[in-house]
Amino acid sequence: MPAVHSRPGRAVRVDHLPLHLESPHAELALDRKLDKIVKQLRDKKGHAAPKALQSLLKDAGGSKVGERAQRLLTALQSQP
């Protein structure tokens, strides 16, 4: 990734950004997927929700969306 110039003669390197800052669009896309799963649960169509959450967790990794999805999956699995 090229350097970003904030002032003439001064460059700031941005190639060391954490993953969640490198692709905010990817984070938003994952958040939309999680919102769809939550909507299914609210509409009482959640029979496929655990499988969808597991699929989402493969893509989300250690992001904030992944953490929320993991908590939701744990809650669903603990219900009788």
Summarize the helices and strands and which ones pair or pack.
Layout: E1 4-7, E2 10-12, H1 19-22, H2 24-42, H3 49-60, H4 64-78
Antiparallel strand pairs: 1-2
Helix pairs in contact: 2-3, 2-4, 3-4
Structural features, described:
The protein has 80 residues and is mainly α. The protein is globular, with a radius of gyration of 18 Å. The chain contains 4 helices and 2 strands, in the order ββαααα. Strands 1-2 form a two-stranded antiparallel ribbon.
What's this model, at a glance?
The chain is mainly α and 80 residues long. The protein has helices at residues 19-22, 24-42, 49-60, 64-78, and strands at 4-7, 10-12.
- Shape annotation: globular
Look at the structure and give the mean pLDDT: 78
What's the total count of β strands?
Answer: 2
- Largest sheet strand order: 1-2
Q: Secondary-structure element sequence?
A: EEHHHH
Major β-sheet profile:
2 strands, antiparallel
Rg on CA atoms, Å: 18 Å
Structural class comes to mainly alpha
The stretches of 5 or more residues where confidence is low (pLDDT under 50) are 14-18
| Count of individual helical segments | 4
What is the helix content?
Answer: 55-70%
The rounded distance between the terminal residues' Cα atoms is 49 Å
Strand content: 5-15%
